[in-house]
Specification:
The structure holds two protein chains of two kinds. By secondary structure, chain A is mostly beta strands. Chain A has two helices and nine strands; from the N terminus they run ββαβββαββββ. Helices cover 8% and strands 46% of the residues of chain A. In chain B, helix 1 crosses helix 3 and helix 3 crosses helix 4. About 4% of the residues of chain B have low confidence. Classes of the chains: A mainly beta, B alpha+beta.
Chain lengths: 142, 197
């Protein structure tokens, strides 16, 4: 599978690439198929979401997607009464974000390797933990 | 010759049966993985070639195959149907084909008022409806409407995975009537073993 476009995650004034799909579980809980369709092999899910962690809470703050009816879908289409931001209370689990330079490209999903991985743990949309893992190999001394 | 006519006649009946069954199972067409891939190969546009393939070639070939090999098609359909009904006879440790809440998943009996109090979503930026389960409130309301006098609400916690192996827990509330789980509402999905999504 082609490498997939990442979601964006704003955390402490820094924008990271999010390698996870927090919106997917929302549709699974609703028992509905997502209303998006793929128009690009680098975006099988048919949408890109923008997320933000603010005061320890995860918010969906932007959305751009392709609808199955051929119409574009944005945040106000999915959440008409919350067009600016949505508290993602349905999100549980650990999500990985990337930071830094690309170290190794993988032509598959979110498998490419960057200098750092950040793991954000959420429970009902509330941030529980943040861990940073470095992937860079230290330069050897001559 | 008569045998061929009889064979094809039965094949037509089998084909009609499959068409009716498919229509009853999935009245709304879904955009599944195969259709998405084909749409992309054809640049995502409904080109002439795509319409011919979609509307005539695939259905026509499928119909011919069923007509020609209807005994095998029947056996395959029966086998797949039996496999789907295997839920209660799953091997130990295997998950059923479809998610189901059973008595072993039940945790605690609670009043609906207590459930609503503990599941109220409150956000300081008012970025979610201040109701039980927030954006998922509709599912909870459907569960409440199903309740009859004497029914109990129970919390549940059940493992689940699409391919037979548990990858997450589904947590929510079930309606229990005369000791049996009648229906349920899944309020959250929790990945297992810190697996990240």
């Amino acid at each position: 599978m082609t490498a997939q476009a990442r979601e964006s995650l704003k955390y402490q004034d820094e924008t990271l690439s999010l390698c996870g799909l927090p919106l997917d579980s929302y549709f699974e809980l609703l028992g509905e198929d997502p209303p998006f369709m793929a128009r690009d092999t680098a975006l099988w899910r048919g949408y890109i979401g923008s997320w933000e962690i603010l005061d320890g809470r995860l918010y969906l703050v932007g959305l751009g997607g392709y609808g199955q009816t051929g119409k574009d879908i944005d945040l106000s289409d999915l959440f008409p009464e919350y067009p600016e931001r949505v508290f993602a209370h349905w999100v549980n689990g650990i999500f990985r974000a990337e930071r830094g330079k690309l170290l190794k490209y993988e032509h598959a999903g979110f498998a490419s390797l960057y200098e750092q991985d950040l793991f954000f743990g959420f429970e009902h949309g509330l941030l529980q933990s943040v861990e940073v893992k470095s992937n860079a190999v230290p330069a050897s001394e001559d | 010759m008569k045998w061929i006519v009889a064979y094809l006649g039965i094949g037509i009946l089998v084909l009609l049966g499959f068409l009716i069954d498919a229509r009853l199972r999935e009245p709304r067409r879904k955009q599944d993985g195969w259709n998405e891939m084909r749409a992309l190969l054809l640049k995502g546009r409904q080109s002439w070639a795509s319409r011919v393939v979609d509307s005539y070639l695939i259905p026509g070939l499928t119909a011919l195959l069923v007509l020609a090999f209807w005994p095998a098609a029947l056996v395959l359909a029966l086998y797949m149907n039996r496999d789907q009904r295997k839920g209660s006879a799953q091997a130990e440790g295997e998950l059923p084909a479809q998610f189901i809440v059973t008595r072993e998943h039940l945790r605690e009996a609670l009043s609906p008022e207590r459930i609503e109090m503990q599941e109220m979503v409150v956000d300081p930026l008012d970025a979610a409806p201040k109701v039980p389960f927030g954006f998922l409130n509709g599912g909870w309301q459907r569960l409440r409407r199903e309740a009859q006098e004497g029914d109990q609400f129970w919390s549940f916690d059940a493992p689940w995975g699409r391919y037979g192996t548990a990858t997450s827990r589904r947590v929510g509330y079930a309606l229990v009537r005369d000791g049996k789980v009648v229906t349920w509402f899944v309020g959250s999905i929790v990945p297992l073993d810190n697996g990240y999504l």
